[in-house]
Structure formats: structure tokens, C-alpha cells
Write a structure and sequence with these properties.
globular, 6-stranded parallel β-sheet, about 475 residues, 14 strands, 3-stranded mixed β-sheet, N-(1-d-carboxylethyl)-l-norvaline Dehydrogenase, domain 2, Rossmann fold, single chain, alpha/beta
Length: about 475
């Protein structure tokens, strides 16, 4: 029997024809936003009848919203992963987006959004480079390529249309992965207002009647499953060219301003969405445990012949090494609630074991030294300060990093992907044949670490021993000998 031709996903087919009031303008409708914020808003609509409609704005001139429009702005989200040891595999048709607009070719419709009576929120994910000032955007007249310039125009049009009404300000909730993302965006918007000679009353309105919420976002959203599309399509009764795959885990930490939960009740759905006065502890937790876990396992895992995060964590030796490092060396240095840290770390291990996501170690090796400096080294130094001794696992990880930058291991070339000056410096260091000299030169290189690590008592001796063991044994034996040496 021939395969039945499926109908393209649409609102009549999906029985979602109710028009929702436009409460949100979203800059960027890429994979992350569709698997993260759009999912959250859709859940608010379906579970507590919040009735929040989204307008999706094309982020770049070369993007395409045509496929979204062809599907009535509907798409399927598959959430797949492990939660407390159990495999989660779910799918949802997301219907919160009401329309998509290309602000470059359809500028007047973009400007008209400022007049939407119910509009209250701006979400964005334009990548970390999106929140930047472009001095070439010298005119208020658009269309503008720069994202903050577009937000400035949207706010000014709204300010003019509603005569500066105090209750018509917006809540800006950016999801770009930079620190103080909302405050950085606000300052650039004000810079444009000054560049364009907009009235002082507008700048005052921005400060007094708009809220800028810094955020921390965390969810892996690989996007369209191009390598396995057929198996996903087989699960659907319709054609969907915009389907998205994400992991199950979701963390959305938002800095409080103006009683946010009263305006958008995140606290009424069962997701890890935290509205807090200070997001820094959560940022620290993510950087040191999740990102730090990736980074501290990287060199030992690659030198052990592993290729993916899951393969590494599932391996008896590497899994034990990482667990001991996180729970016994990293967590105690953070000064945060012990139970919350333990629960977060266990979630991280579930994410590392996700069978649906293939996370290659080589991709983590990009700018490895700077990542180690930010994500792992502070834990090592704080551990020494608190305990008066070296953390065995973090020290072995550091030694493995130094060995990694020799460039090859056995007959295998290693995936060095760092600044040329760093790779060249390590190449120079490894012209020395004595491990003690290699350790001394690598640890004292302040351009790597912003400090001279030979000043840390016992570190040079420990790294020297680890380097010797790594070159003369398999990694598990090298580690065990190193542990015995430091006991």
C-alpha cells in the first residue's frame, strides 16, 4: 500500500483556531526560542488559560519565516531525556505564536505592534553578539539590522502612541547568554535614544515605566532532527517541516522587578522557572557544575579514548571520576544550599546521560584553557583555601589539560581548537623533556590563568607526578597511582 500523503500542519487540523491577544513580541524564532520560551507560554495558555499570544519577529535579514506562516505558526516540540533515571519522551504541538513578521520587508507591520493594547512583554534570543551597539545605525528611520535599535524603535513608537502612559511600558526579558543581559540591553536602547535625539521624556519613561529582567536560561535544543527526521515524522499524523527536539530539562531564572509573577504566572506551572531577587547564585551553580563538569572531564575523557559526554559518564572510571569531582570537590566550594546543589548536580548527570543527544567532546574543546580558567580553576583554588590541601580530581583534570595541549596522545592527534598564541605557547612548553619543567612553565603562565599557579602549595609537584603517570599508564591506572601519591 502506498504511503498516505499527509496534510501540512495547520490550525483547523489541530483545532487551535482561537485567536489569542498579542501579549508578547519575540525577537528571534530559532530553535532555542521555540523549544524554550514558546513552550513555556504555550504551557501557560493550555494549563491555566493565560491567553498570551506571541508575534514572532525574524531576527536577521537572511532568515525565513515563510515555513512558519505556511503552518499557521504551529510546530511540534519533542522533549526527550532522562529525569531521575526514567526516560521521558513527549511531544506537544505549540500554538502560542499567532503570527510571524519580517521586520525588514514588512516594516510597517512591525511598527504597528507598538499599538497593540495588550502587549506587555519582549522576549529575545539573538545570540550573545546580538546585544551590542552599532554606531552605524545613526538614524531613527528603519528598518534597522541591529536588535537593540529595533527594540528602541518599538518602545518609542509605543511611547508616542499612548502619550507616555505609565501602564503601557513593557517588560523586557532577554534570553541571550550574557551577564546582566537586560541591563546591557537597556543601556544600549538609551544610547540610541540619545544618538537619535529623542526627547528626554522618552528616556525617563524607559526608566520609570518599563522593567528590564536579567535572566539565566538553560535547555539544550538541538532543533530540527535532520539526521533522524523520518522516525520523528512517523510519529505525526501531519506534515511538519518546523518540528523541534529539545531535552527535558528546563531552567529559567528571572530577576524580579515589579511583581513579575502577578503579570505572568510562571509559578502556576510545573516547570523550573524561578523569579528571584538575585540570579548570581544560580549562574555560579550552572557555570561551576554543568559547564564546569563538561570542562573538567574533557581532557581525561579524550585521553581515555572517549568521544561523547554520554560515553564518558557511562564509563565506570570516568563516571566515578566526574561524580567525585562534582559532589566532593566542586559543590562544597560554592557556599550554596547543600541539598539544592546535590539535586542540581544529579539533574546534570541525567542530562549528560541523555541518550537522545550526542554531545561530542571535541566540540567542548573550543577555547579549552579560558573555559577551564573560568569554570574549574576557581573551584580548585577555593578548595585549597578551604581545606589546606589539593583537590585530587580537579588537580588531575588540570594535569590532563596540560598533557592534552601536547597535541597528540599515542598515535592520535588531539582536537586542539584554541587561540593560536595559546597552542603555540604550549608547543614551546612541550619542547622540554622533563615533566617538572613542563609543569612549572605551564602553571606559571599567567596569560593562561591570570595568576601564577606555581604559588599554590604542592600543585607543581602533583601535576608533575600526574603528567608522568599519564604518559606511562592507561588513564585509569594513572589516576589510581596519582590518588595513592596524594593520599
Amino acid at each position: 500500500m502506498e504511503n498516505q500523503i499527509k496534510q501540512k500542519l495547520n490550525r483547523e487540523l489541530n483545532n487551535t483556531q482561537e485567536k489569542l491577544p498579542i501579549k508578547i513580541v519575540q525577537f528571534g524564532g530559532g530553535n532555542f526560542m521555540r523549544g524554550f520560551t514558546d513552550y513555556v507560554i504555550d504551557k501557560l495558555n493550555k494549563e491555566i488559560n493565560w491567553k498570551g499570544g506571541i508575534v514572532n519577529l525574524q531576527a536577521t535579514p537572511n532568515g525565513s519565516i515563510q515555513k512558519m506562516e505556511e503552518q499557521d505558526n504551529l510546530y511540534t516540540l519533542f522533549t526527550r531525556g532522562i529525569k531521575k533515571g526514567e526516560i521521558i519522551d513527549e511531544k506537544h504541538v505549540i500554538s502560542a505564536i499567532q503570527k510571524s513578521i519580517n521586520p525588514y520587508s514588512d516594516y510597517q507591520n512591525f511598527l504597528a505592534l507598538a499599538k497593540e493594547e495588550d502587549l506587555e512583554f519582549v522576549f529575545s534570543n539573538t545570540t550573545e553578539t546580538g546585544i551590542a551597539f552599532d554606531e552605524t545605525e545613526t538614524s531613527y528611520e528603519g528598518p534597522h539590522k541591529n536588535f537593540p535599535a529595533k527594540v528602541a524603535v518599538l518602545l518609542y513608537e509605543r511611547f508616542k502612541y499612548f502619550n507616555g502612559a505609565a501602564d503601557k511600558g513593557l517588560r523586557i526579558i532577554p534570553c541571550e547568554l550574557i551577564e546582566d543581559n537586560a541591563f546591557v540591553l537597556r543601556d544600549i536602547i538609551i544610547k540610541y535614544a540619545q544618538l537619535w535625539n529623542l526627547e528626554d521624556a522618552f528616556v525617563e519613561w524607559i526608566h520609570q515605566n518599563n522593567y528590564f529582567h536579567n535572566t539565566l536560561v538553560d535547555r539544550i535544543v538541538p532543533g530540527y532532527p535532520k539526521d533522524d527526521a523520518e522516525s520523528y515524522e512517523d510519529q505525526l499524523d501531519f506534515e511538519d517541516q518546523m518540528m523541534v527536539v529539545s531535552e527535558t530539562f528546563l531552567l529559567f531564572v528571572i530577576q524580579e522587578a515589579g511583581n513579575l509573577n502577578e503579570r505572568i504566572p510562571f509559578n502556576k506551572i510545573n516547570e523550573q522557572i524561578l523569579v528571584v531577587d538575585d540570579i548570581q547564585p544560580y549562574r555560579l551553580r550552572k557555570v561551576r557544575i554543568l559547564n564546569g563538569g563538561h570542562t573538567l572531564m574533557l581532557a581525561p575523557a579524550i585521553l581515555s579514548g572517549k568521544e561523547t559526554v554520554k560515553e564518558s559518564v557511562d564509563n565506570q572510571f570516568m563516571g566515578m571520576f566526574l561524580k567525585d569531582a562534582i559532589f566532593n570537590e566542586v559543590n562544597p566550594t560554592l557556599g550554596l544550599n547543600e541539598t539544592e546543589l546535590k539535586e542540581f548536580a544529579e539533574e546534570v548527570f541525567d542530562r549528560f546521560r541523555n541518550p537522545f543527544i550526542k554531545h561530542h567532546l571535541a566540540s567542548i574543546a573550543l577555547y579549552f584553557v579560558s573555559k577551564f580558567k573560568v569554570r574549574v580553576l576557581p573551584s580548585l583554588l577555593t578548595y585549597v583555601e578551604n581545606n589546606g590541601k589539593l583537590p585530587v580530581n580537579l588537580t588531575f583534570s588540570l594535569a590532563s589539560l596540560i598533557r592534552f595541549y601536547q597535541g597528540s596522545f599515542g598515535e592520535k592527534a588531539l582536537p586542539l581548537n584554541d587561540e593560536e598564541v595559546i597552542v603555540a605557547k604550549f608547543k614551546e612548553i612541550w619542547t622540554n623533556e622533563e615533566y617538572e619543567k613542563v609543569a612549572e612553565l605551564a602553571l606559571s603562565e599567567t596569560s593562561f590563568w591570570d595568576t601564577d599557579l606555581t604559588q599554590v602549595e604542592g600543585l607543581k609537584t602533583a601535576v608533575t607526578k600526574a603528567l608522568y603517570e599519564i604518559d606511562h599508564n592507561d588513564m585509569e591506572t594513572a589516576y589510581n597511582n596519582f590518588v595513592e601519591f596524594n593520599s
